[in-house]
Amino acid sequence: MSYNKKLEIELINRLKEILKDLPDICYDFFMSISLTTSIKTRIGYAYDLKLFFNYLFENTKYFKNKNILNIDVKDLDYITYKDIDRFLDYMSYHQTENITKLGKITTINRINNENGKARKLSAIRRILHYFYKVGEIKSNPAELIETPKIHYKNIIYLEKEEVEALLDEIENGTKLTKKEQSYHIYTKTRDFAIVCLLLGTGMRISECVGINIEDIDFYRRGIKILRKGGNESIVYFGDEVYEALNDYLDEREQIEAVEGHEDALFLSMQRKRINVRTIQNLVKKYSKIATPLKNISPHKLRSTYGTALYEKTEDIYLVADALGHSDINTTKKHYAKMKEDRRKQAALVTKLRENNL
Asked: pTM of the full predicted structure?
């Protein structure tokens, strides 16, 4: 079974576990959106709906004496727009109790920004819209709630000099701790190839993890990846990525992978397919040395690629296609502002009159 298929099955099983804590009526809703949403989106919705129903039980008179698992579709008619509004306000900051494996109860502080609240409102809207559409409830009060305004942050990316410093540190490892240097000799070729691949193609970290050796076509200089949403795509790479992958594959051929991981391109020290957390950690390890003032993650390497491509081409559609954005508006919100900033800078360069003071 392929890595992506195994991952999909794991996510489906995770969704099933969450649904056990939700009313039975939720099954109908999740079945209705199964063909139009990704499994990760459905898991997110399930978590959000669990929080919402728990809030209703703890804070509203109607639901207070009810059992969450026995909620009937007709009970949804008693949800008001005020309940939803107050829930979103409550989610700005709240505390939850967590029981550790040793049985210790710990308190976790949780904060939701506009993005988190917008997703929770989307989950509530969609489930109420579904039951309203099929005629099982009288209205959808969530439609009366305005979506929180999203404040888009400036893109954090690496400048050319910072990219060079990052790659130099991966190659040399001179500023790593002694403990890190003891592992560096075994991982530097792999780490260099991973970072070059992320910087040179803009692929997502999950897409990088899922690559098999057979997915690489060195003749065409392309790699087959599974995009977010499940669509296959081919990304192309240049000379530097070509050389980095070639060097790594020379080492990779000498490694006997653990059974079930033989096809994986990138392996961990345990000779298993590398995971997302390992790549996150290695990027953080090198970047905190090369660019200490920037909190660089694999996603920031993706932003670096997107920024470089847009600056060179000013083609927002090309950037969207290269990054695998299904909605061009996602790309425009992030990258189109760069063009406006450059125009403002150009206006400051020209002086109409010299100051003779």
From this structure: 0.82
